[in-house]
Amino acid sequence: MEPQLSWYLALSAILFTIGVVGVIIKRNVIAMFMCIELMLNAVNLTFIAFSSYFQDVTGQLFVFIVMTVAAAEAAVGLGIIITIFRNRETLDVDDASILKL
Amino acid sequence: MDFNNPYIHSVVLIVAISVAFLTIMLLCAFTVLLERRVLAFIQGRLGPNRVGYFGVLQPFADFIKTMMKEDLNPDQSTKFVFMLAPMIAIVTAIMAIAVYPFGPLINLPYLGTFPLRIAQFDVALLYVLGVTSVGVYGIALAGWSSNNKYSLMGGLRSAAQMISYELALGLSLIGIILICGTLDIYAIVQQQSGWYGLQWNILYQPLAFILYLIAAIAETNRVPFDLPEAETELVAGFHTEYSSIKFLLFFNAEYINMITVSMLATSLFLGGWNGPGVAQFPLLGVLYFFAKVVFFLFFYVWLRGTLPRFRFDQLMDFGWKFLLPVAILNIVLTATVLFFVG
Amino acid sequence: MTTILFILFAGLAIGCAIAMVSQSNPLYSAISLIGVFVALASLYVTLAAPFIAAVQVIVYAGAIMVLVIFVIMLLNVEHEEPRRKRLRFLVPAAIGMAAVLIGETAFILYSVQATESGVPRTVSNVGLTQSIGVGLFTQYLLPFEITSVLLLMAIVGAMSLARRNTILSSTARVVPGAQVLAMDIDPARAGKETVETETTAEAAHLLGVEFHSNQENGE
Fold it and tell me: Is residue C65 part of a domain?
């Protein structure tokens, strides 16, 4: 039995759920950022699966744009993380929950 | 022989992969010897010439000696990454050879025609660039997991250098992609055949060739860009703490990286297996291919014996402020010329 | 054959994802995430999207994760400490909600749909570089150009965030062996070129501060 479209969608849902669990559980800012990247990748998988199923290139173009946006977000996000670290000396999200340094 | 039959296809693939792997390992051993002999001649002395005729068995003797050494491991919690890093380095170095055509279509009497390559797919050039990008991890993780400040600095510097020059490497190849209209290395080599060598891409893209060579030398951490592993600067850089087999894996990974970028240079710029007389005797193509690869390896060793090394900030300035704009300029020029001519 | 490949790569992706979430050392999380990306790239190849697979390896596994690993190594991030008491409910709650979400997805996929869904093709012309190029440059040209502006914004943003705030202006040059005087310190020379001095004593004289040489007692 060939892998059905629903299998790919189920895999994407599972990866997305693991990403959400990671964002809730993790206290390190960098680890939370990585779980967000995992969620973006799960959505990419859905797009590619649909693009292959409907034989339409639009899904893959959307993935291209999502990857570019993720790269831009990674650069700026890590810059923000470095600035937070310089000011607070900690990468713990629970400690950074108030605006006061 | 019906190559569409999955069983025959898998047997042919396994044979092809084994032959290519063996060839690369032998070529790597030959490169080690080549470097030591040629470097010695440049420096006015003889290299190793005792172990076999002209020292031919020297790399194998080195291999046996290195195997016998003690395998040191750190007792910190980074043991897994310590063992993973040389594996990543050597695997990504060897993975790149899967897309290079070693010769034209060979016509054996009983077995039929088959091309001398492992795989041919549409995005072969992007595959090579991707595999090179993942190879950065081997060095960065090695530097970090050694728990040694010199290793960490060497590893991070080397990784920063590699990712900076990867950009120039990729951009310098876009001119070739514009001319040939495909990312498939097999097709690019096919397009360079005929016309007595006047179709080779080096004549159409000389600036890209020079940029590619410089970026490739920086990518493989060779002189003059080898500050991260210079003996006088950082002990030995990221592979300070490695010994025995793991050091051998790093050592060989560097030479195999050299071999793969040389293969990419010959396939894309010098016409791959093209040369006089290939149409009549296809096996000559294999000879020409390896002759060109060995020429590039000799060029690498020649540079090592001749040039001093860059300081790290000079290195990064050169990569970002000179190579990148010139590569973009090359793309714009190529696109303009193609627009008006083609 | 495709089924075996799918199960292999899907298992690898899910295993690496769970490893990423459960590791306490952020570097091991990063390495597991690289494993997820490579597994997903292999899945894209089986879905006839080779260009996107190669771009995924180059951009995600080869650039973004290198950046993350650099940041982890430079900031020297340690293990996570054990959670405070009042937030200890988070882990069971998150896993419980995840189980509910996965249960809902399974229910939708296997009970609500009446017929078997179709099979994504493994070999097609859609994923080739040429069709992606055609799509990017004809129908979707505007998003393509906007992403280039977005990347420029990201470059400017990252550079301005990561720069240390110093008193040296951007036109000051640091030359090894000489001293550099920042014009912001000396208001008389504000707006003019930087002044290079030969020794620290001269720079101190220009600044109007005292200078005690280390070499007063002989070399």
Answer: yes
- The complex scores an ipTM of 0.93
- In Å, how far is C130's CA from the nearest CA of chain B? 9
A23 within domain boundaries: yes
For residues C199 and C108, state if they share a domain: no
Q: What is the CATH number of the domain that holds A47?
A: 1.10.287.3510
Band (pLDDT 50/70/90 cuts) for residue A1 is confident
Owning domain of residue A34? 5-88
Chain C interface disruption, residue of B9, B84, B133, most C CBs within 10 A = B133
CATH number of the domain to which C33 belongs? 1.20.120.1200
Contact status of B337 with chain C (Cβ, < 8 Å): no
Does the pLDDT value for residue B240 go beyond 60? yes
Which residues share a beta bridge with C129? none
Task: Judge if C110 and C206 occupy the same domain.
Answer: no
Chains with 3+ CB–CB pairs under 8 A to C are A, B
Out of B138-152, B219-233, C95-109, least confident range: B219-233
8 Å CB contact between B143 and B152:
yes
Residue of A nearest to C35 (CA): A38
Name which of A41, A64, A68 is nearest C40 (Cβ-Cβ).
A41
Range of the domain at C201: 167-211
CB contact under 8 A, B144 and C73: yes
Are C23 and C112 found together in one domain? yes
Total domains present in chain C? 2
- Is C104 in the same domain as C199? no
pTM of the model: 0.86
Instruction: Determine the distance in angstroms separating the CA of A47 from the nearest CA of chain C, rounded to an integer.
Output: 10
Q: CA-CA distances (angstroms) from residue C178 to B37, B86, B95, C175?
A: 43, 43, 49, 6
Query: By CA distance, what is B81's nearest residue in C?
Result: C28
The predicted-structure confidence for C51-89, as pLDDT tens digits, reads as follows 999 999 999 999 999 999 999 988 887 776 666 676 778
Query: In chain C, which stretches have pLDDT less than 70?
Result: 80-84, 86, 112-118, 164-197, 200, 203-204, 206-219
Cβ separation of B133 and C62 shorter than 8 Å?
yes
Same domain for C23 and C109: yes
| 3-state DSSP of chain B | CCCCCHHHHHHHHHHHHHHHHHHHHHHHHHHHHHHHHHHHHHCCCCCCCCCCHHHCCHHHHHHHHHHCCCCCCCCCCCHHHHHHHHHHHHHHHHHHHHHCCCEEEEEECCCEEEEECCCCCCCHHHHHHHHHHHHHHHHHHHHHHCCCHHHHHHHHHHHHHHHHHHHHHHHHHHHHHHHHCCCCHHHHHHCCCCHHHCCCHHHHCHHHHHHHHHHHHHHCCCCCCCHHHCCCCCCCHHHCCCCHHHHHHHHHHHHHHHHHHHHHHHHHCCCCCCCCCCCCCCHHHHHHHHHHHHHHHHHHHHHHHHCCCCCHHHHHHHHHHHHHHHHHHHHHHHHHHHHHHC
Q: Say what the pLDDT of residue B92 is.
A: 94
Kindly state whether residues C122 and C40 are assigned to the same domain.
yes
Q: How many domains does chain A have?
A: 1
| A16 falls within a domain | yes
Which residues of chain C make contact with A89, given a CB cutoff of 8 A? none
Q: Which two tokens stand for residue A57?
A: 């290139």
Contact A71 C151 (CB under 8 A): yes
Tell me whether residue A64 is in a domain. yes
Locate the chain B residue with the closest alpha carbon to C35.
Answer: B134
In terms of pLDDT, which residue wins out, B11 or C219? B11
The reply to whether C216 falls in a domain is: no
